[in-house]
Design a protein that fits this description.
By secondary structure, the protein is α+β, with helices and mostly antiparallel strands. Helix content is about 30%, strand content about 30%. The protein has 15 helices and 45 strands. A nine-stranded antiparallel beta sheet has the order 2-8-9-10-11-18-15-14-13, with helices on one face. An eight-stranded mixed beta sheet has the order 19-38-39-40-1-45-42-43. Strands 3, 4, 5, 6, 7, 12, 16 and 17 form an eight-stranded antiparallel beta sheet that branches. The relative contact order is 0.11.
């Protein structure tokens, strides 16, 4: 790890764990004031998310056909493993004048725990707004409308709520024999509610209103969408200035109709309580690992990224509780995405989610593969669509070790360790057919033909071996620990020799023969020809020339090759295995030649697409090599995309397309800030915390509060004046050991708790809960 920070005077002082060091108002409180789209993105997608249900539509309140995995079916109301409706709308009619209108939102306001819509003034004096809430406890949603009579006369309204019923299974169902049956809808006169079901499956639903129903109707099934409209009406009489709220609840069940009705009643009765509980839970999430920094754009992006991932938490009765990859195209379980995202989630203290997701990935992978290989993706029906790319197994092992480092949860490690060992065997034996320590197979970039010995697979395998060696030592398997450690050392050496290209000052895409390189080039050409509207055909001449260059080599000649210049060439720096001078060279090279406005291109050959994960990884890599100003610059690139489409959300593809928000964005944000800027690296089981802060040049202060490590919470703040630097740190619990590292510290006068000391190194170990450290020239 390479860290540098200049200072003249440093003070290490006590501060209370629960006290805000710089302000009486928490820096995340403004999130609960709501973020408006100001009517500018009404045609963009929004999500109202809960662990048990989601509403997906456009910000003008409409529900057109959305999505690719299920063509045109990814929008609407989803509850677990099936959709219940394509959407809904509200029609208001003035009974006296017979004027009517279907509501369209002029503004959407996003809150962490709900979404609100403003429909403006309609029907000569009625103002309408709406709140949407998706439940964390019941598979259902609540849609509330508030109608205010702003006129000077009484108004009698007919309020018609239409639900477009369409019970549809999730992606990858038809391929596994789960076929969509005909829907049936029943009006339950006794309970004054609708119920519906699928004729082939145990998919049931119910929906009701908290007001008296005056009439109802069921329309004909739409042949284009497959949805059947069902509508009920209520009459509202409003006096001048009177405000009335009307609520609609939609729930589902995989048991029977009676259970759907029961859940409908539970959600209606507990709505306000659950809304409050959800708000409180998100406040707890935001107040854990709370940061306060001068760059408010990055600060806001950090908090909203936490919230985005809260929206991606999924709890399905038949599967379990886990972090899904992204809305709206990838709302299911992924190996790669979670191996990044969970490393961020553990840093912000969301440990229950981390443990549950790691366990589920382990369980599903063992059931599917049985050899330690980690799956790529599993749909919410329990079917695995891809058994796993090579990189994902190594990456998962890294995430398991990170979870243990931060939590100290030895039981989690003990439960997962058997499959970790199998995963190492699969990587180093089954997938290394030529026995050169480089596993073969696809990595993060699923480029046609790039089925070789890839840089990201090699680097993450090296890190997995390091992690597995430490796990083996913990469980008394010393011989295995030594074997893993020796392989890790050898693999690190080989990567730095075989993958490094001195002429281009960069690590290569992959290592292999010229024959493999020709296959990769052919795959890239084929993929370019298949690109939509020929958008990538302009790169074909590059690959044709590259093909000619490769043909000058014997087909069996082995070396490192550049075929795509994919962003993952930064992984040796992300993981800190590149020698310092070489790593800095490579980072500079990427910045100069491989980056766009929002960070590294996915392919520096195409120079078109950028993603939060590639930019986030680059931020982590820069911090590892002491280049903290470059690191926060990359974090700023991510932050600049906040809210470009959906208020409070950061798109998967930067700046403004792909999924509205994606789980792995938190990897760069949380790791870059907490481990990069604040320099926190814990070993919770040993009750040890490393503190090696890096204060960016343009920041004069930064604070981190209530950081969860093991059974402890810590605070850290840094303030810089013209000729001094003040650092304040405290631990909530006794018995913890802190390692403070700052280059140049041994050359200065040091006072610790009132006593002058002479250090022989730049590291100070302290067992004190309350430590005051002063450094001066």
């Amino acid at each position: 790890m390479y860290r540098f920070i200049g200072l003249l005077i440093l003070v290490f002082a006590l501060s209370g764990c629960s006290k805000n060091l710089d302000s009486t108002v928490a820096p995340w409180q403004n999130c609960f004031q709501g973020v408006s789209n100001k009517g500018k993105t009404s045609d963009k997608i929004y999500v109202t998310a809960g662990r048990k249900a989601q509403i997906i539509g456009l910000q003008n309140g409409t529900f057109p056909a959305i999505g690719e995995h299920l063509k045109g079916e990814m929008g609407g109301i989803w509850t677990g493993s099936f959709k219940v409706a394509d959407g809904f709308d509200m029609k208001l009619a003035d009974i006296t004048s017979n004027d009517d209108t279907i509501l369209h939102a002029r503004e959407m306001i996003v809150f962490p725990h709900k979404n609100c819509f403003d429909f403006g003034d309609i029907l000569s004096g009625v103002h309408v707004s709406s709140t949407q809430f998706s439940s964390d406890k019941e598979p259902g949603v609540v849609v509330s409308y508030i109608l205010t009579n702003k006129s000077k006369h009484d108004i009698s309204l007919s309020v018609g709520f239409r639900l477009n019923v369409d019970l549809v299974p999730v992606w990858f169902s038809e391929e596994n024999g789960i076929h969509n049956g005909n829907d049936y809808i029943i009006w339950d006169k006794d309970n004054e509610l609708f119920t519906a079901g699928d004729s082939l499956h145990n998919w049931f639903m119910a929906w009701k209103c908290d007001h008296k129903i005056s009439s109802y109707e069921v329309g004909e099934k739409c042949q284009l969408t497959g949805a059947t409209p069902a509508k009920f009406y209520s009459i509202l009489d409003l006096h001048p200035g009177q405000q009335e709220e009307i609520r609609y609840v939609i729930t589902s069940s995989m048991k029977n109709t009676e259970n759907a009705i029961e859940r409908c009643n539970i959600l209606l009765n507990n709505y306000e309580k659950e809304l409050s509980e959800k708000k409180n839970s998100i406040e707890t999430l935001l107040s854990t690992a709370e940061i306060d920094i001068p760059d408010k754009k990055i600060q806001d992006a950090f908090y909203w990224t936490k919230i985005n991932n809260r929206w991606l938490e999924t709890d399905i009765d038949t599967i379990g509780y886990f972090l899904s990859a992204g809305a709206v195209e990838y709302p299911w379980l992924f190996g790669c995405d979670n191996s990044y995202a969970l490393q961020g989630q553990v840093r912000v203290g969301d440990w229950k989610l981390v443990g549950s997701t790691l366990r589920l990935l382990n369980k599903v992978s063992e059931r599917t593969n049985g050899n330690g290989q980690i799956i790529h993706e599993m749909s919410n029906n329990g079917f695995v669509g891809n058994k796993g790319n090579t990189q994902e197994t190594a990456h998962y092992i890294m995430a398991v070790w990170e979870a243990y480092r931060w939590t100290g949860d030895i039981q989690l490690l003990r439960d997962l360790y058997p499959n970790v060992k199998k995963g190492i065997s699969w990587l180093t034996e089954t997938m290394d057919t030529n026995h050169n320590l480089y596993p073969e197979g696809y990595g993060i970039m699923e480029v046609k033909g790039l089925n070789a010995e890839l840089i990201d697979v090699a680097v993450y395998t090296q890190q997995a071996l390091v992690a597995a060696s430490k796990m083996a030592s913990l469980f008394g398997e010393d011989s295995l620990a030594t074997t893993f450690s020796l392989k890790a050392d050898k693999l690190k050496e080989k990567i730095n020799h075989d993958f490094w290209d001195e002429q281009q000052c960069s690590y290569c895409d992959f290592y292999g023969t010229a024959g493999m390189a020709l296959k990769a080039v052919s795959g890239a050409i084929d993929q370019a020809k298949l690109s939509p509207s020929g958008e990538n055909e302009d790169i074909i001449p590059f690959y044709e020339q590259l093909r000619q260059n490769i043909l000058s080599y014997d087909t069996t000649y082995s070396k490192g090759w550049f075929t795509n210049k994919n962003w993952v060439i930064n992984t040796p720096m992300e993981c800190g295995i590149a020698p310092y001078d070489r790593g800095v060279q490579a980072l500079k090279q990427i910045r100069q030649y491989n980056c766009g406005e929002y960070g590294p291109y996915l392919s520096a050959v195409e120079k078109k697409q950028m993603m939060t994960i590639s930019t986030g990884v680059q931020a982590v890599a820069e911090a590892k090599y002491g280049r903290i100003d470059s690191s926060v610059e990359y974090l700023g690139m991510i932050a600049n995309t906040l809210g470009l489409n959906m208020p409070g959300a950061i798109n998967e593809m930067m700046p403004d397309y792909g999924c509205p928000f994606q789980a792995w964005t938190i990897y760069g944000m949380a790791t870059g800030l907490i481990s990069g800027c604040f320099g926190i690296e814990p070993y919770a089981a040993d009750k040890t915390i490393i503190v090696a802060p890096q204060l960016p040049e343009k920041w004069n202060n930064m604070a981190l509060r209530k950081l969860h490590v093991g059974d402890n919470y810590i605070n850290l703040s840094v303030k810089r004046n013209a000729n001094s630097l003040t650092l304040s740190y405290d631990s909530q619990n006794d018995g913890w050991k802190t390692r403070i590292y700052l280059p140049g510290m041994s050359k200065r006068n040091i006072n610790v708790n009132g006593k002058n000391l002479k250090l022989t190194s730049d590291t100070l170990w302290t067992h004190e809960k309350n430590t005051i450290l002063k450094i001066s020239n």
